TrEMBL record:
Name the UniProt record assigns to this protein: DUF3099 domain-containing protein
TM region(s), chain numbering: 24-41, 47-69
InterPro entries per the UniProt record, alphabetical: DUF3099 (IPR021449)
Keyword Transmembrane: yes
Length: 130
């Protein structure tokens, strides 16, 4: 079986996390209702345990209900940055190597085509009129 790779540091699915927190809150509140109802027939020192459950379970339920899961906490592995190759061959490499071609993308086509230098062409001076 292939190992899954994490591509994000996002935690648990929010819908799954919310459903889990709602389930835990519901369970704690059901236990609290049982504690409150059982106060009517429990006697002796057990009444302290039931009363503590009736008082402390709401706090516990709210704390569990508001605790958001953050996942494993592992950040994904960052990819290696891209390296730009130089246009000049390395001096260590000797032989019949051809220098890589340099492609310029940022130059406007009108500037490249206007290298004729004709006086009638307004872009011959770099687009400046004067």
């Amino acid at each position: 079986m292939a190992k899954s790779v994490s591509v994000t540091s996002a935690g648990v699915n929010p819908a799954d996390d919310r459903a889990h927190r709602m389930r835990m809150y519901f369970i704690a509140m059901v236990l609290r209702v049982l504690c409150v109802v059982s106060l009517f027939w429990v006697r002796g020192w057990w009444i302290l345990l039931v009363a503590a459950g009736a008082v402390l379970l709401p706090w516990f339920a709210v704390m569990v209900g508001n605790a958001v899961a953050h996942g494993e906490g592992e950040a994904p592995e960052a990819p290696e940055p891209l390296q730009l190759a130089s246009a000049e061959p390395d001096p260590d490499q000797r032989g019949d190597t051809v220098a890589p071609e340099v492609i310029v993308i940022d130059v406007e086509p009108t500037r490249r085509a206007s290298s004729s230098g004709s006086p009638d062409d307004p872009t011959a001076n770099g687009g400046a009129e004067g």
